[in-house]
Amino acid sequence: MGWKTLDDMDLNGKRVLVRVDINVPIVDGVVTDSTRIRRLMPTIRDILAAGGRPILLAHFGRPGGERRKNLSLSQLVPTLERAFETKVLFADDCVGPAAEEAAEALQPGQVLLLENTRFHANETKNDPDLAAGMARLGDIYCNDAFSAAHRAHSSTEAIARLLPSCAGRLMQAELEALEKALGKPERPVTAVVGGAKVSTKLELLGNLIEKVDYLVIGGGMANTFLVAKGMPVGKSLAERIMKDTAAEILAKAEAAGCTIVLPSDVVVAEKFESHAPHQILPADRCPDEGMILDAGPDSLATIKAIFEKSRTLIWNGPLGAFELEPFDAATNAAALKAAALTRAGKLISVAGGGDTVAALNASGAAGDFTYISTAGGAFLEWMEGKTLPGVAALMQAD
């Protein structure tokens, strides 16, 4: 693996600086979705059980280096105490005398939350002096924020070079899942890539065609590829200026032995709204006034058959306008098929990205996927084959 876990560290009596992602939605001072906090519980529980004293480092919002009351992490203390079932103390800075005093006073069984790291403008500049100030607060550094691992910041990258470092349970699970999906996957490997624009996923597509056996393209992106193949798409969402690029991707995929799967039939409507009158047509028969809003049943049958013979699935983006019924049909059905194969032990399925998580939750399939990443930017950059600074720093740490 190249990186250590909590199991590799002697935590007893040690202050453990834990970089976490608790960037949760708050309305009128109340946390409306505590999913990210709940996912930290295994890390905090294991550190406490091993005799360690967790000290939490986190950013919240984008204060731009200014102290802003509405972006203070102090408002999360009650929610953290309920989740961790222990006393959570708060320090009104993440470096300096107040933070050092609070860290020294922390007792076994307690958790210390430090103030928003981004109240310091140098945090996002990966400032080594700021990282050194943070490092003085702990004996061990533990990164449990994969969602921030694509940023080289003081609390994610520079600090890992100053203390014995490891991955937390959430980071560990994420990295292990990603290694299974693209690092050393069981083959055949299939990727589903959907969404609106080819232009935002060029690096992703370029990386995947070198690594997967089947690449299923859906959503508005698929329309751009249909244009590249000379097919009419009417008023569909499509980046017509990207047709030459799409054609190049098709040629490169063929040369790499990667089978690109485009819709063979489509669901077409004249209005972009729920339950708009619609019809199923061959992919090359979209009328001038029509909009392609979903993949059709023949396309879905092809996708399901590919899933059946695959061993690994990576999913990023819906197959159609999943937010509108009934144009969520292909996404839902494909997701449920992947879930059933995963449940039966026939498929390793890893998914990530905002729309992807929403679509899989809506379909009811999310619970059966092998792993679902909530780390939007970091997950996408990993799929693009990029080095994530926060992960690389763990691999180079002592």
From TrEMBL:
Keywords: ATP-binding, Cytoplasm, Glycolysis, Kinase, Nucleotide-binding, Transferase. It is an enzyme of class 2 (transferase). SUPFAM superfamilies: Phosphoglycerate kinase (SSF53748). It comes from the Bacteria. Substrate binds at residues 21-23, 36, 59-62, 118, 151. GO terms for molecular function: ADP binding; ATP binding; phosphoglycerate kinase activity. GO terms for cellular component: cytosol. Monomer. This is Phosphoglycerate kinase. It comes from Ruegeria pomeroyi.
